[in-house]
Amino acid sequence: MLEPWIFIALLLGVGMLLPGVAIAANWLLSPKKPNAIKQSTYECGIETVGETYVQLKGAYYIYALIFVVFDIEAVFLFPWAVAYDKLQLYMVLEAVLFIVILAAGLAYAWRKGVLEWV
Amino acid sequence: MDSFWIDPFSFIGSQLAAWLTGLGLAENWVSLILQLVGALALGTAVLMLTFLLIWAERKIVARIQDRLGPNRVGPYGIFQTVADLLKLVTKELITPEGADLLPYNLAPLLAVMSVVGLWAVIPMAPTLLGADIHVGVLYIVSVGSIGTLGILLAGLSSNNKYALLGAFRTVALMISYAVPMALALLVPVLLAGSMSMQEIVLAQKGLPFLLLAPVAALIFFVSSIAEVGRAPFDLLEAESEIVAGFHIEYSGLKFGMFFVAEFLHAFTISALTAVLFMGGWRGPWAEQYTALGFLYFLVKTSLVYFVVIWIRGSFPRIRIDQMNALNWKLITPVALAGLVVTAVAEKVALELGAPRLLTHLAGNALLIFAAAAGLGAYARAARRRSELLAKASKAEAPAG
After folding, report:
1. Helix ranges (DSSP H) in chain B
2. What is the mean pLDDT of residues B270-275?
3. Which ipTM was obtained for this model?
4. Cα B285 to the center of its chain, rounded Å
5. For residue A30, which residues of chain B lie inside 8 Å, CB to CB?
6. What is the reported pLDDT for A17?
7. Which of B27, B141, B145, B352 is 20 to 30 A from A74 in CA distance terms?
8. A20 lies in some domain
9. Whole-angstrom Cα distance, residue A34 to residue B47?
10. Which position has the higher pLDDT, B299 or B96?
11. CB contact under 8 A, B162 and A103
């Protein structure tokens, strides 16, 4: 039962190892001459002004919130989709009602104007 | 020899297992070593494939733009990518001051790991599948999102305002487009009755799901292209925009790894589209001769990859607010409606005894018609709004 997951763990490990080896090869073969100008923050040639960690816009938070709602909806719909062959029509229509309620939420967000990128 | 030509993958696997058991190892050590060899072979093959993919992309985009593309290094420029790799290997790794070292170095590894991990569940032939897990589709959605995490780490740890802003916008875009991707992935799961990828390929016996659910296939394809960040959705990393976005402060092969991850991800989503919607390794005599199945898989994946490159060469870049509006106002509602249409059409066809393909095609045609009508109404409302605005500003101008 555990066998395919061991392969996945090994493949993810290999996926981290191979680029690690490549970057190590790069580190071995590259010149190492750091100086203050090279290591300063890049801003198209001019000096950086102010703090790096600028304030986020509110729009990012809203998109993340709406994403969480729809992602949880998708996760709830996965078991329904797997069991689909054994369902009758009214059970399918109940899930359609669930989707319609969430679509109404999306329509509400649209009308309120929170989906604009300003 | 006969068995090698019929089923080369099982043949090689069983020969290796027999040799290892002959050396005197226990059962679980043999299977562990076999899996390790398989994982190494798959990871290396997939990363070596990137050379070919980058070369193919450069030649095809060049031809679309009426020029030749690389043709000096080797016959038809095949070794151009190798030359670029050798150049990148000898570049200095400049670490910006004030950068957070652990996330800074981890980010390219995470980006590549997420893409290589996707290949574990893609069935390339009837007997060539890394891990036949019951939740293959859910695995794809979750591991695909680890790449987004890598990008966020890269932007946050670079100590650079523009890398930070680029990373925020990239992550906002990727999570936005993950929603219709997950919803469109539900449709093959629904039609096949299982989340396992091999089951989905086996369920496409008579008809590929492309014919049964064309809207879901199109939505999965388009939202995957946006997830990868390829043109026309590559606002966040194109050089003329936000100065290369989240990978401003990366040099040498660390940047090379982001590059490799992006091209490989584009090929991986082509493979996913081929497996989930076009029947994967299905084709004439694929069950008996598994090497033929592998060939069909490669042909279908290359076809979809060619379409991805074609789209890159043909469309102008889309602005960030247009991308978000497109996702939340068009693609997500159509994805939800497509799921509802497929679910209802399948049950209706089953219970009323209507022909399955025609019911699905009729439902999808209705959906496309409704979406086009909605788009037309939206465009008319937007045009009316801009005309009113122009009239209002013209009324003010002579007075002011």
Report:
1. 2-6, 8-22, 27-64, 80-89, 101-118, 136-144, 146-157, 161-192, 197-202, 209-212, 214-228, 252-277, 290-314, 320-325, 332-352, 356-399
2. 94
3. 0.91
4. 28
5. 89-93, 252
6. 93
7. B352
8. yes
9. 31
10. B299
11. no
Q: Is residue A89 part of a domain?
A: yes
Task: Report yes or no on B165 lying in a domain.
Answer: yes
Q: A63 — contact with chain B (CB < 8 Å)?
A: yes
Please indicate, yes or no, if residue B12 is contained in any of the structural domains.
Answer: no
Substitution target in B242, B347, B348 with the highest count of A β-carbons within 10 Å is: B347
The pLDDT of residue B330 is above 80: yes
* Cβ pair B261, B144 in contact under 8 A: no
Total domains in chain A come to 1
Return the number of other C-beta atoms located less than 10 Å from residue B97's C-beta: 11
Q: Does pLDDT of B332 surpass 90? A: yes
CA dihedral A60, A66, A68, A69 (to 10 degrees): 170
Write out pLDDT tens, residues B21-39: 888 878 888 889 989 999 9
Q: What is the CATH number of the domain that holds A60?
A: 1.20.58.1610
Averaged confidence pLDDT in chain B: 88
Q: What is the pLDDT of residue B242?
A: 56
Q: Which of B116, B248, B329 sits opposite A14 (nearest CB)?
A: B116
Domain that holds residue A17: 3-112
Please check whether residue B27 lies inside any domain of the structure: no
Number of domains present in the structure of chain B? 1
Residue B295 has pLDDT above 80, yes or no: yes
Interface test with A, best of B328, B329, B332 (most A CBs within 10 A): B328
**Which chain A residues are Cβ-neighbours of B39 within 8 angstroms?**
7, 10-11, 13-14
In a domain, A117, yes or no: no
CA B39 to chain centre: 21
Average pLDDT estimate for A15-31? 91
Q: Answer whether 0.80 is exceeded by the pTM.
A: yes
In a domain, A70, yes or no: yes
Per-range mean pLDDT, top range of B248-252, B372-376, B390-394: B372-376
Q: Is the pLDDT of residue B1 over 60?
A: no
For chain B, positions 33-62, list CB contacts with chain A under 8 A: 35-36, 38-40, 42-44, 47
Q: Which domain holds residue B217?
A: 91-390
